[in-house]
Design goal:
Helix content is about 65%, strand content about 5%. It is mainly alpha-helical. It has one domain: ABC transporter involved in vitamin B12 uptake, BtuC (Orthogonal Bundle), CATH 1.10.3470. The strands form 3 sheets. It has a two-stranded antiparallel ribbon with strand order 1-2. Helix 2 runs antiparallel to helix 11, helix 3 crosses helix 11 and helix 5 runs antiparallel to helix 11.
Length: about 375
């Protein structure tokens, strides 16, 4: 399924020209998985720690740009090391991106182990790059509060997007760049394989985040969110915790951005904008319920199904609506958000007390063990 651009937003060919039920389900699962990783990271920052991160685009864009800038070049390097007698050469990688990726994909299809190595290596680099950018972003922003912090993070995210758009070696500028296909070995089953991998990644992320937030760390973060002075009075370094949360959240979002780049098969800076990768994740989180990881997944699923269905079938309403049909999904989802905020502002699944480590007590004679949580 190829990627095209419509008003600066990434749109799948299947969305425009229909497709079978199986393709519809695969698209829903894939988009749900990618957005779930972003929303879980936002839930860590905003839901559990109280950081109003309106710069989620920052991590997602860094991850995608890392893949576009490095994956093809690394694949060519690996190919040339393995085949010194017939190397792949180029003068301008950006201009020759499509041709070079075509050659690389043929080699990856014959070398699945190298494809797996390339996939996990670039994901690791994307996470490191996201964490580094998050660390840098935390310095000017971490001591700010409320609206000032949100605006600062939003401005940093926009700066990264503008750099990616205007510096072609990163993401191809106005033309974009193709990225290698690590799933080339499966042939026509590529999208099924990608979707299965994305579902596995969101499962791993959910388990790791749940374990982390059900530890004493989770209580510290909630204490920081509810009353910083109380947390500081108990000896907790609030600033340090907030920095770590921004680093972890940005690194996680970068992995999601890298996965989205591999899913679509290409990167163009205009597809990474604040509506799709900052505002929509906030809507998903508010819909599902903040400070509740399961609620974040539920909200993401509801939103993705609604929006994908609207995009897929909105052409039916052409000639009926008094406005351009391209705005239908924005209007309907905006109305849905208002209804949720009015009728159930805590979300579908509100925050619940989280049990942490179990404590063991014994009776006076130490004969009976009693476990509590």
């Amino acid at each position: 399924m190829e990627q095209v651009q419509e008003k600066g937003e990434s749109v799948m060919i299947g969305e425009l020209f229909g497709g079978g039920v199986s393709q519809f389900v695969l698209d829903i699962i894939a988009l749900f998985s990618i957005y779930s990783i972003v929303v879980l990271s936002l839930n860590l920052e905003a839901g559990y720690t109280g950081i109003p991160n309106f710069g989620k685009l920052l991590g997602v864009a860094v991850g995608a740009f890392t893949v576009s800038a490095l994956s093809g070049r690394l694949a060519i390097l690996f190919h040339n090391l393995e085949n010194p007698s017939s190397p792949i050469t180029y003068k301008d990688y950006v201009q020759e991106s499509a041709k070079l990726v075509f050659e690389v994909n043929k080699w990856l299809a014959e070398n699945p182990l190298m494809a797996i190595l390339l996939l996990f290596l670039t994901l690791a680099i994307a996470a490191l790059a996201g964490g580094a950018i998050g660390y840098l972003a935390s310095y000017p922003a971490i001591r700010l509060r409320g609206d000032y912090l949100a605006i600062t993070l939003l401005a940093m995210a926009e700066a990264v997007r503008v750099i990616g758009y205007n510096y072609p070696p990163i993401a191809g500028g106005t033309l974009g760049m193709q990225v290698p296909n690590p799933f080339a070995a499966v042939g026509e089953n590529r999208y099924a394989a990608v979707t299965a991998f994305l579902a596995l990644m969101v499962l791993v992320t959910y388990v790791l985040y749940s374990k982390m937030l059900c530890s004493p760390l989770g209580r510290v973060l909630r204490a920081t969110r509810d009353n910083e002075l109380s947390a500081e009075s108990l000896g907790k370094d609030v600033v340090s915790y907030r920095k770590k949360v921004i680093v972890i959240g940005t690194a996680t979002a970068a992995v999601a951005g890298a996965l989205y780049a591999y899913y679509t098969g290409g990167v163009i800076a205009t597809a990474y904008h604040r509506v799709a990768w900052t505002f929509w994740p906030w809507v998903m989180l508010m819909l599902g319920g903040m400070a509740n990881n399961l609620g974040a997944l539920v909200g993401t699923f509801i939103f993705v199904v609604m929006r994908y269905s609207i995009i897929r079938y909105k052409t039916v309403f052409e000639g009926i609506l008094p406005f351009n049909v391209v705005w239908l999904d924005y209007m309907l989802l905006g109305i849905a958000l208002l209804v949720v905020l009015m009728l159930r502002p805590q979300g579908v699944l509100p925050e619940k007390p989280v049990r942490t480590v179990k404590k063991t007590f014994y009776d006076a004679d130490r004969r009976y063990k009693i476990e509590t949580s």
